[in-house]
Amino acid sequence: MWAYGCGVISSGVPASGRWPLVIAGILLAGPLICATSQAVNDWYDRDVDAINEPNRPIPSGRLPGRWGFGIALGWTALSLLVASALGPWGLGAAVLGLALAWAYSAPPLRLKRNGWWGNAAVGACYEGLPWFTGAAVMAAARPDWRVLVLAALYSVGAHGIMTLNDFKSVEGDRRMGIASLPASLGVDKAARLACVVMIVPQFAVIAMLAAMGQPVHAAFVALLLFAQFVLMVPLLENPRERAPWYNATGTSLYVIGMLVAAFALRQTVLEVP
């Protein structure tokens, strides 16, 4: 939802008169497509969750039978129905996002079995794809190339965020043969890798904003990145225990930087005669 909003802002297109597209897109990105991905993941991860989080609805039996699978199918259909109202760009992005959502969790692909591929798919769907979609829907055309670059950079960084998210399920992943990065590389090495993957794209964003003639926005993103550095020190001391804490603090700073970058791009687009 946040990334779609960043796409809307970065497009430079006024929202006045286009609020239905904005609201429908935000609902599509969050309560529909993202929720679909969670429903699909809950169904196909029910055996892993029985080990890691047995109180969740499916392994605990509160959601009996094949209700979990039915919800995933129904929400997929509803997502496509809403996406059809956003024009060809919105519908195309929704189809791609839903395809990746199913490919991430469901066999035969089950991308989550490999932490590199799975995290890349989720990072793209959580950050880059909705950002691109918001800009494309507003402009009714392919977005400015700088939109694509910023969306891609923040998608790469989200790969690290997803690595931190996997710390909570290391035991179950190892027992079920899921090669998440914490399970395959070890917790400490995966934590250091996640930090590097989050940091490097933000340096590129800062350089890009400065080159676009937006030094104030670049400085603000740099300040947010410095704060993330500070928070990474205690994270790396105890990654498993502090990953949820960092996701609530450092990751929040990361996504605020996305919004700052979106406003910088909007300012750049509006300054072009």
From TrEMBL:
UniProt-annotated location(s): Membrane
CDD domains per record: PT_UbiA_chlorophyll (cd13958)
Mode of membrane association: Multi-pass membrane protein
Family annotation (InterPro entries): Chl_synth (IPR006372), Prenyltransferase_related (IPR050475), UbiA_prenyltransferase (IPR000537), UbiA_sf (IPR044878)
Membrane spanning residue stretches: 21-40, 71-104, 116-141, 147-167, 190-212, 218-236, 245-265
One of the record's GO molecular function terms: transferase activity, transferring alkyl or aryl (other than methyl) groups
Gene3D superfamilies in alphabetical order: UbiA prenyltransferase (1.10.357.140)
GO CC terms: membrane
Main localization category: membrane
Biological processes annotated in GO: chlorophyll biosynthetic process
Chain coiled-coil ranges: none
Keywords: Cell membrane, Chlorophyll biosynthesis, Membrane, Transmembrane, Transmembrane helix
Transmembrane helix found in the keyword field: yes
NCBIfam families registered for this protein in UniProt: chlor_syn_BchG (TIGR01476), PRK07566.1 (NF005742)
Cross-referenced PANTHER family: CHLOROPHYLL SYNTHASE, CHLOROPHYLL SYNTHASE, CHLOROPLASTIC
Name of this protein: Bacteriochlorophyll/chlorophyll a synthase
Organism field: Skermanella stibiiresistens SB22
